[in-house]
Write a structure and sequence with these properties.
127 residues, alpha+beta, Rossmann fold, 4-stranded mixed β-sheet, two-stranded antiparallel ribbon, 4 helices, 28% helix, globular
Amino acid sequence: MTGSVDLCLTSPPYMTANDHPENPLEAYEMDDGDYPSYLAEIGDVFRQVSTLLRPGGYTVVNVANTTAGGVMTPLAWDLARVVSQYLVLRQESFICWDRQPPGITGDYCLVFQRPGSAVAPDDLAPS
């Protein structure tokens, strides 16, 4: 399937920041599942995103590792591993905040690409 999207920019929910009772990041548990289930669901989302991207299209994910209740959750690293099942991880950038939210020291911008050739800019010009 050839998608029509060139770029997807997204960030998964940070439920620890909002004190949601179904927090999947706190101590690796949530009310209706567990952390591996959460990652599997995130993976399914990116499987679908990968079909929407054009060959050579990009997805940029803004995500952080978090700490809640003394437990560090390596969400950025785990998400990179899961998304890499469907898209190629091309680059990471780390943003270290002077005033970060509690439990987050900074954000990763993870850049993924759908395999295949990108359309050359000349091919996009009207004929």
